[in-house]
Design brief:
246 residues, alpha/beta, TIM Barrel, three-stranded parallel β-sheet, 10 helices, 13% strand
């Protein structure tokens, strides 16, 4: 019969990698969102995490990973690179079945979380509260915005990172940095005007070294990618291609 008392970690459970009190993901950053693709879950997610860690170190580029929620704790113990949640709900721990409070990802060893991704949007008050709660725990919010106007509005929450990702380009083959460069440069300017300390990441359709290099030229502090790696028949080669743009 089940019990409401949480079980303690077994003696053989590996220790979580140490984290500083004021974590940073680094810049320019390659942040890989695994979403919930079939080939990016469980042991496959861990293999991808180890590959990303190895290749980022070899390239001298800061890298981070956002796996599916069930894999969060497993991967956080397996690698030393920053691991983020894909979503949090602005709630305290309590009677909230199926929700993900920031305290839960902290206990899992996460460094922070994506917030307001276009595939899991939140109303502005909840974004504000999620950022506040993450900040209070020393965790890093990466807030996602769909356009320049939303970037300015969401920058007022003063997140550590803001990722500009037009929804119609997410998961596609056209990168916002090359197809709509004015969106990236406009978001960078809009965010700086509201929250000078917030770093802008470029997402949506980023697949190649050219896409990455162009994003950095436009003022972005890194890229947020997913399908370029998660849907590639050769994820290692896809990661290498992206890293070549830094």
């Amino acid at each position: 019969m089940g019990t409401s008392t949480p079980s303690a970690p077994g003696p053989s459970e590996p220790a979580r990698p140490p984290r500083t009190e004021s974590p940073t993901l680094g810049r320019p950053l390659l942040l890989l969102n695994l979403k919930t693709y079939a080939g990016c879950l469980g042991p496959s997610a861990e293999r991808l995490a180890r590959t990303l860690e190895e290749m980022g170190k070899l390239a001298g580029v800061p890298v981070a990973l956002a796996p599916a929620t069930p894999d969060l704790g497993r991967i956080a113990t397996a690698v030393s690179i920053p691991v983020l949640a894909q979503h949090v709900d602005p709630l305290d721990p309590g009677p909230f079945t199926g929700f993900v409070p920031p305290a839960a990802i902290e206990q899992a060893g996460a460094w922070g979380s994506l917030v307001n991704h276009s595939e899991h949007p939140l109303p502005l008050p909840k974004v504000q509260e999620a950022v506040r709660r993450l900040d209070a725990l020393g965790l890093i919010p990466v807030v996602c915005a769909g356009d320049v106007r939303a970037s300015a509005r969401l920058a007022a929450t003063q997140p550590t990172y803001l990722a500009i990702e037009p929804p119609d380009l997410v998961g596609g083959d056209r990168a916002v940095s090359t197809a709509r460069p004015e969106v990236v440069s406009g978001a960078v300017d809009a965010v700086r005007a509201v929250s000078a300390g917030t770093l802008v990441l470029c997402g949506a359709g980023v697949h190649s070294r050219v896409d990455v290099a162009r994003a950095l030229e436009l003022g972005a502090s890194g890229v947020l990618v997913a399908s370029a790696v998660t849907r590639s028949p050769d994820p290692r080669a896809a990661i290498a291609e992206l890293l070549a743009g830094f």
